[in-house]
Amino acid sequence: MQLDTAYVRILVVTNYVGLASTVLAVRYKWWIDPLGAIVIVLYTISTLARTVMENVKQLIGRSAPPDFLAKLTYLIWNHHEEIKHIDTVRAYTFGSHYFVEVDIVLPEDMLLNKAHNIGELLQEKLEQLLEVERAFVHIDFEFSHRPEHNAKV
């Protein structure tokens, strides 16, 4: 739910409940007005709490669903015939879109400018997807190494 939608709903509900509780309090019992205020406060708090939780879920970097990762993998594999291996495909939430991280393996003897062009075109292709905010493509010539960047002494 968008914050604007939640805000409009809160305004509509609070106006109707406030008006109704005031009219009912004047006509029947005085305590209906404070009861209406309590209902308004509880509704406002619960609506805003739900909105906050939805936004937090989008901001904490949750992994993309498997079908989206499969779509990315398909696009990557069919991007260029010289891609020998797909080492990693990650996508995680960044707001309402995804950050995508991809590690591909190209031939060891490929010229740097050709490898760069393949990676850059893949990045641009991934960033054209509506769901993708930003894509990062890492190019390597093998995939058997460990992913750490520890310096060997």
Across the major sheet, the strand order is: 1-2-3
Give start-end ranges of low-pLDDT stretches: none
Biggest sheet architecture: 3 strands, mixed
Classify the secondary structure makeup into a structural class: alpha+beta
Run of helices and strands: HHHEEHE
Number of domains: 2
- At the fold tier of CATH, the topology name of the largest domain is Alpha-Beta Plaits
Q: How many separate helices?
A: 4
- What CATH architecture label of the largest domain applies? 2-Layer Sandwich
CATH class of the largest domain: Alpha Beta
Estimate the global geometry from the Cα principal axes.
Answer: rod-shaped
What is the total tally of β strands?
3
- Helix-residue proportion: 40-55%
Proportion of strand residues? 15-25%
Rounded to an integer in angstroms, the radius of gyration calculated over CA atoms is 26 Å
N- to C-terminal distance: 53 Å
Give the full name of the CATH homologous superfamily of the largest domain. Cation efflux protein, cytoplasmic domain
What integer is the average pLDDT?
Answer: 86
